[in-house]
Design brief:
Elements (H helix, E strand, L loop, with lengths): L1 E8 L8 E6 L2 H13 L3 E7 L2 E2 L2 E13 L5 E17 L6 E6 L9 H18 L12 H6 L6 H9 L3 H31 L4
Parallel strand pairs: 1-3
Antiparallel strand pairs: 1-7, 2-6, 3-4, 3-5, 5-6, 6-7
Helix pairs in contact: 2-5
Amino acid sequence: MDELGLFPLGIVLLPTERVPLHIFEPRYRELIGECLEEDREFGLLYADEEGVRDTGTRARVAAILERFDDGRLNIVVVGGSRFVVERLTEGRSFMTAEVDDFDDEIGDVEDEARVTAAGAFRALAALAGAETEVDEESPQLSFELAAQVELAADEKQFLVESRSEQERLERVAELLDNARRTLIATRELSEKAKRNGHR
């Protein structure tokens, strides 16, 4: 078990996902500064009106986009492994805790689940006109697919808290199908609106 500096935010970071962050509060400038100096990770936890979750994702600074004279930073972080908070600790300006690794339970993943999720992703990407590369054999396929699309924070937190790649792949396939149907419906409405009043 190790101690980790924590950053509660209103977003969920998935393993493999890259997210831009604007760091402006002094305590988080201190946290990120230490992580940069010592090449360390910090923990990103989802926080909303219901409170701070205890399962999150380790984050590492992948790039510094901009440093401001007053100490603010624009950075990109990348999600690593998941963790669970065991005990909050004290003594720093930012939140800290003793954390443990949060790993999947051992279980087989059906090939069909991989193929279905990857297929749903390719169908959505094709509709959106995006280039895609999918490694269906990746042990983190569910996270890699979900990290490339806009999903609601509560759905992403479900994925972070799931200990089953099979379960995550099934949920991701469903979410991607829903996103594709929404995109089709939105485009149809847009076309209908353009034609409104014209024969």
